[in-house]
Amino acid sequence: MATLYDVCKKTGLSTATISRVINGSGLVKEATRERVHKAMKELNYRPNHAARRLAGGKTDTIGVVMPVIDNGYYVRVLRGIDNLSTKENLKMLISFYHSDLDLSETLESLGGEGRADAIILSNDTFLQPEKIRELTGGDIPITLIGQHHGNTQAIDSVLIDNFQGAYYAVEHLLTHQPKSLLLLTGPQDNPDSKERLKGAQKAIEDDPYKMDITLLNSDFYHEGGRQVFAEYISKQGPFPDAVFAFNDAMALGVLDVLNDTSKKMPEDIQVVGFDNTEIGQYIGLSTVSVPMQQIGEEAARLVAERIKNKDAKPISVTLETSLVTRKTTA
């Protein structure tokens, strides 16, 4: 049986263009439309889900696209999406991506083949809203979770106040006047990490007490945080008086290293994370609390509303963060 990609191969066109033809978009030239229909007829291609959407039908499905789940953050976001989508009688179709190329193919499949009525995307990539719309065919409702590149008003989004959360974290650490502070960031080009760095730097700027500042870049993963911190300690030494890790996963990596030393918390070193994951709660990690489940619920609410009214102006919702102090800080 022929697939959408067979049509793409025969015509030399992208899945986004094929999708526009199938969905009756007026943005396609007549010659291109005839070329696609001719190829579909020759291949005996039947668009299945796309045909239902073309006819005005719905799949009653939300496509949820995220990086591979490896920490509690995504689990709780998914829980929120599930809660709201269930109330709206919508199903979830969950896909994971490992790279920008993988994400592009996933978006083309969901949007181009009409497998979902809307998409929720945790956009931990460098794709701009305009490119995302192009990949999905241009007409499917999309809500982004997290900071993103490009025009933040071009597409529905659910954000958290990364700046304020990071400010609270560093402000708390600085109340104890550490002689040295280490900032363990996520990827340098990650929008969330960049906002957290701005908040941390502002708190340092606002504090009259001067200290040594060290900036280490990692990857938002537990093992990455552990390796970067362990390497720093082995080569640089001595230990910093305080560490602000830009998420709980990396903070737990720091704690792994500290557990193999004689350092005590919070007497010798203080550590703050970001997210307030369940494992962080269990071990007593001071952190910035992120309303993860509410993020999922808001994202599902936005796409549910957008399915009903595609012409409404894009909405950006920013949720507050707060500091939670536990036994890793005084």
Would you write up a description of this structure?
With 330 residues, this protein is of the alpha/beta class. Among the domains are: 1-57, 434 Repressor (Amino-terminal Domain) (Orthogonal Bundle), CATH 1.10.260; 162-290, Rossmann fold (3-Layer(aba) Sandwich). The protein has helices at residues 4-11, 15-22, 30-43, 49-54, 72-87, 100-112, 129-135, 162-174, 191-206, 222-235, 248-259, 278-283, 292-308; strands at 61-67, 91-97, 118-122, 142-145, 156-160, 180-185, 212-217, 242-245, 270-275, 286-289, 316-319, 322-324. The strands form two sheets. It has a six-stranded parallel β-sheet, with helices on both faces. Helix 7 links the parallel strand 3 and strand 4 (142-145). Helix 5 runs parallel beside helix 13 (292-308) and helix 10 packs across helix 11. The longest helix has 17 residues, at 292-308. The protein is elongated and about 75 Å long. The mean pLDDT is 87.
